[in-house]
Amino acid sequence: MTTIHDVARHAGVSVATVSRVLNNSGTVRTDTRARVLAVIDQLDYHPSAMGQSLRLNRTRIVMVVVPEVTNPFVGEVVYSMELAARSRGYSILLHEYHGDQLTDLQLQQYVSTRRIDGLIFLTAEAREKQFQQLAQQLPTILACEYVDHWDIPSVSIDNIAATLDVMRYLMGLGHTRILLISGSAGNVSARDRLRGYRIAHEQAGLPVCEELLQEAEPTPAAAYATLTGAVERGLDFTAVFCASDVLAIGALRALQDKGLAVPRDVSVVGFDDIMFAPFLNPALTTVHQPAREIGERAIAMWLCAAEGKAQDYPVTVRHELRIRDSCAVARR
Amino acid sequence: MTTIHDVARHAGVSVATVSRVLNNSGTVRTDTRARVLAVIDQLDYHPSAMGQSLRLNRTRIVMVVVPEVTNPFVGEVVYSMELAARSRGYSILLHEYHGDQLTDLQLQQYVSTRRIDGLIFLTAEAREKQFQQLAQQLPTILACEYVDHWDIPSVSIDNIAATLDVMRYLMGLGHTRILLISGSAGNVSARDRLRGYRIAHEQAGLPVCEELLQEAEPTPAAAYATLTGAVERGLDFTAVFCASDVLAIGALRALQDKGLAVPRDVSVVGFDDIMFAPFLNPALTTVHQPAREIGERAIAMWLCAAEGKAQDYPVTVRHELRIRDSCAVARR
DNA sequence: CGCCAGCCTGTAATCGATTACAGTCTGATG
DNA sequence: CATCAGACTGTAATCGATTACAGGCTGGCG
Q: What is the extent of the structural domain holding B304?
């Protein structure tokens, strides 16, 4: 590997001068600069990232902590983050996180060994203390979720408002017994969606029926099982609101398998608007989240934080209820 | 940040000794070791990854190059890679790749600046020369795709055999005019699936009808458009074979929107067996790929390559045609 | 007692960059 | 001609680890 010393030697200058032309810092005579550049080109020299990192104490790597890359919505966000980061000279280190203690430890390791410049969380499932501790050590952004009493820059839709939109829509169609399938309770957006669910009931003067509140692992299979069970237990409901499209896909199928037509017998609403939603059968009514925008904003905000600039937060991006074919007026 | 020097000073030893206890190298007296460990613990010392990287010339980072994280199948593979890598002390740097020249350059940059220890490609879309050049510089593994004349360790299913399974199945149901919707032609597995398609025709003594060969961007929307167009042009076919489930989802919907029932009027087969496949309506018949296994194997093979150990390749993992509800006997 | 092997430890070079500081050179000015 | 500012460049310290080499100490053996 050719180093800055090789370049210096071949160009007949010192390493300091080579570094100056590399970074456009200090002053260098035009012909010296040309000579150095020629040698750099000729030797195909590329400065060692490790050397730079050590000296400058930054790695140009930001870690993205996700609950499940497997979810297309998450994939979409990560995708846009990768592109946005790359265009600014940063790379994305991917880290799955499921709220386990081992991963907590590993995250702290990354920070302690200064392997990364910062963190972006797509999930606030972490125990608060753990989370704050990381955020204190490195620039940290929360994407897709917002926790009101945490003082951390975040970008997300307004989960409560979005849920209210859904609930009002369903209630407007005459639904009063709405089954909620949410992700695990540790998840913040799940919590917000639950909160929205309760608020909507309050506003409508309806009681919340606890048996209508179901939890499921974030897979279609889990939602399928949950819903199948509910139907078999004879649970009374005319609509299902799923905390993600991934869950909705399982729910759709469970209802159909139980001989319930969607939307004639039961209405279904999802969340996220993944790329499959419009193509499902029936096309899924769901809350659209601007995944790309969230990803890009998150990177922009992270850079802002990393540069120590002040910024306004939380940033709330627009959601939109996309009405398609999975909902209808409630049967009596 | 506390460094190895701080530890050495507090423990009253030299940095060499601290390093020795950290790495269990050389010899250290038991009581000295204990003293050093105590100080490490007390100061909460963690060795700097950058310092180590510079000295040892390795970053413990492997780059995973993917065509689209947004595809749940890819997500699944990446997911298992991340876990497998992490359990061995490595991290995953994610990089989207779409065969563009800029990305080629960026990849080479990563290698030249020694930011990564190696590469795993989930796509062989790269121009061969470019690819070989990277593989020559760093340990490189090909996952999910296999290119016969490239001398690079790879792990994947046998795409041709899998396609043959599908074709035989469809032909066994009486289908002779099978529409193929494949990903972009640059893609290797797309090429293999096309090859399988041709071989199946040969073996059955049927001519390949070029108008039945369609290409589409890897989104449900693109497949939807392609298939809608085909139906509108009055193209004659009784089955559709999609090169991925993502495409199949769009295809399913296009047929239904055109008033064609699946599988009564048209049969549909997908590829990958993403987690949604069994829950679609109708449940999708598709080729199962062991995503988790591919990811884990790829990491294992990469480590093997990185350690310079010999290994057998290509590794072929088992695929399986999962017959569900989207295919039926062909109408005359 | 002298010698030597073997254990333990420290000194200092090294990886590849950046940068503070100092030194040299040039040309303008009084 | 002496002086000096300013442009250009080089020396060497530094970031935080690993490790080759050398030196000190201890104990066993002849």
A: 58-157+291-316
